[in-house]
Amino acid sequence: MSTYRLNNLLSPRSVALVGASARSGSVGRAVLENIRKVGFKGQFGLVNPRHAEIGGVAAVKSLDRLDFVPELVVITAPAGEIPGIVDQAGRLGSAGALIVSAGLGQGPGSLHEATSTAARKHGMRLIGPNCLGIMMPGVSLNASFAAHMPGAGNLALISQSGAIAAGMVDWAAQRGVGFSGIVSIGDQIDVDIADLLDHFAMDHKTRAILLYIEAIKDARKFMSAARAAARVKPVVVVKSGRMAQGAKAAATHTGALAGADAVYDAAFRRAGVLRVSDLRELFDCAETLGRVESPTGKRLAILTNGGGIGVLAIDRLVELGGIPATISAEARKKLDAALPPTWSGANPVDIVGDADASRYAVALEELLADRDNDAVLVLNVQTAIASAAEIATTVTELVRRYREQHRSWAKPVLAAWVGADQHIIQTLSSAGVPNYPTEDDAVRGFMYLVRHREVVEELSQVPPAMPDTFVPDARGARQIVTAAVADGREWLEPVEIKHLLEAYDIAMVPTYAATDVEQAVAYANDIFAQGDTVVLKIMSRDIVHKSDVGGVVLNLTTPEAVRVAATGIIARAKKLRPEARIGGVIVQAMVVKAKARELILGLADDPTFGTVVVFGRGGTAVEIINDKALALPPLDLQLARDLIERTRVSRLLRAYRDVPAVKLDAVAMVLVKLAQMAADIPEIREFDINPLLADESGVTAVDARVAVGPPQRKFVGSGPANFAVRAYPSQWERRLELKDDWHIFVRPMRPEDEPIIHEFLGHVTPHDLRLRFFAPMKEFTHEFIARLTQLDYARAMAFIAFDEATGEMVGVVRLHSDSIYESGEYAILLRSDLKGRGLGWALMQLIIDYARSEGLKAISGDVLQENTVMLDMCRQLGFEVKPDPSEPDLCDVKLKL
């Protein structure tokens, strides 16, 4: 698993520092001082071959001279020594190393490669190199050269920048915000963002995960980990380089629209990660998510002593998609009785500028009791009449009492004291009340909570590979594309594109390829006979943008007009592009739909995330208008609708004045079909449909361009190698017949299976649960089960078995691959009353078949020595069974594939 040994690195019982310098101001000396200052409670040793002691701490010359084996080795030694240090640590049995030093280089023959090889040989995990270090308040470990150590709390920070991590620590110290862990990952020689997401998602001390990202190396692994983590707790990201342009020049409009940052945006959205634009927003997000749970809705009540600031807060709330809460009749009656007659009578609840602590208390109490809101924001503008500090104290005491009375779940209460001094901030923070300098920041904080709740709901949806009602001619389409690639071409011909679209049931205007002028006239006559006018376009593999050479003539109504236009088009193309190969002209019916909207739909290829689906407003000025949205495939109709709704042109698709609404699902279905086409035909590099005409009757493609090339395998494992997100693998659904005519249906697990899992576990005895989880299991929390059901169908897979007669779940088997996708760890659990009927054997065979199909080299597992039934089955299936050298109660079982 990608979390293998991470707990040893992040919560070690013993630490050794190698390379601490006696020189004041050096990195090694700073790390040593930080470890000592915080008071790490485990065993600690110092290694330095040139000094017997540093800063009063005795040192030994090498790791093997310590009187203990360190779980974690922190390395600040020169780069050239690091491979040897890692190798020695591995031979001794260390779990991993934190490499603070820089200078390991990259590529074959580098110190980076030598260090990685040494670690892998011993099963060690590595953090770094070139990083600030790690800070783990829960175990009093500050193995970093940061200036401060954060307090313990419930936020985790994973950062590609040491400076950002250090800045977060300084901010946290001022706001009283604590961390469950801070990890600066540096060059990610081994442990990467995805590994740490997996770790902190499972960490019960972590409420929310903050990320600072510069670039993602393994997109599929990141998407898998981020989606799984975001389902159980908020994940917030700042991504630098928002304005950076993609390095690859785009050949199509969709390629140009799919800029690098726009693709990251789409990826974060699909992963359920909340993206913020800068560190201030990240701080505000941390302030909110670290203190309160998400509300059940987005109705916000605002309590204020200043009408103007309350109205500003309402304006921002509406702008960001929140809902100003109404005041129920019952609550209004109580507020009327308790407040002066000059109170606002509505939301925002303005209790007037002379409001004191008691007035705030009575109003807040009523709003917390009112079921017509989901959260309360308390605003205070300081006056000379009432003490802002006293009001803050009163509010925090009331919030404490309210939370004690509602332990299972309490409404979020947020605050903004304008111009507050540090004492007021501390009062609010110490009570766990998220507080902000302005009403704008506070409203944004509330909307982060709302967005997280929406994300969890969205992530529970699993898109199928393709709607059951649609079966494309994928084989015929693939033949068109592969033939062009075999011919060495980079672009499909227009007639090939028409056949490609037909294979996926996407309507296109009648299109013909004419090699000369007279053939163009003949095709035009066929179109005239249907009552349509004609458009001519230059046909050349070398001229992608036809209008650049005057290669398009519209609205031709007679054969003679076609003859003149065709002659002129070919002549202009030869003059302006003498090097281009001219194949003739394309003859198309000219579709005139006065009330149709021009859209652009297509596919683009991103170097990090693979295939991306693009939707937006079409026409010749698409890059200038720049009204587009992106999504990662696969798509279903709901995801396609969401993609459409994220554009401005989506408003024009609705009915207005005498213009009827577009048949929206017809547009969404084209997006789903394009996503499926990308999965079926990885040779497609870029795809433009521009414009796609959409109206109340449906959609028609007017023009399209398709760039092709040899397929590029971006991601390991099965499924489309150009997709960073996998579809639900319906191809693995099975019907099995076992002993005694027992019929079983097996399918991959889905996120919505959580209630089924809870019910199933009620039929498993405590003894069998202990054999599966290696410890007594008295309770299964929502978070625990949710984590089991959140699969990416890439690194993690699970199959659920159902009794076809009763529909009840009877067993489950799962597999989780390691961080480098070479081997997987399996686990299996059956209903205790249905064991001995062949189900375990069938599920084990299924997971072995799946592992083979994924290209894994081995699967393994840990089995208790007393679980003789499982050990016997493993032997019969060909597993090698060995005692675990470090755990006498366990056996290691391994099957080479």
UniProtKB/TrEMBL annotation:
Molecular function terms from GO? ligase activity
Alphabetized CDD domains for the sequence: NAT_SF (cd04301)
Does the keyword Nucleus belong to this entry? no
InterPro entries in the record? Acyl-CoA_Synth/Transferase, Acyl_CoA_acyltransferase, ATP_grasp_subdomain_1, CoA-bd, GNAT_dom, Ligase_CoA_dom, NAD(P)-bd_dom_sf, Succ_CoA_lig_flav_dom
Keyword Thylakoid, does the record have it? no
Question: What positions does the domain N-acetyltransferase occupy?
Answer: 744-897
Q: Cite the entry's keywords alphabetically.
A: ATP-binding, Ligase, Nucleotide-binding, Tricarboxylic acid cycle
Which domain of life, per UniProt?
Bacteria
Q: Which Gene3D superfamilies match?
A: 3.40.630.30, ATP-grasp fold, A domain (3.30.1490.20), ATP-grasp fold, B domain (3.30.470.20), NAD(P)-binding Rossmann-like Domain (3.40.50.720), Succinyl-CoA synthetase domains (3.40.50.261)
Q: Which PANTHER family match?
A: 3-HYDROXYPROPIONATE--COA LIGASE [ADP-FORMING], ACETATE--COA LIGASE [ADP-FORMING]
Name of the protein: Bifunctional acetate--CoA ligase family protein/GNAT family N-acetyltransferase
Q: What organism does the UniProt record list as the source?
A: Bradyrhizobium diversitatis
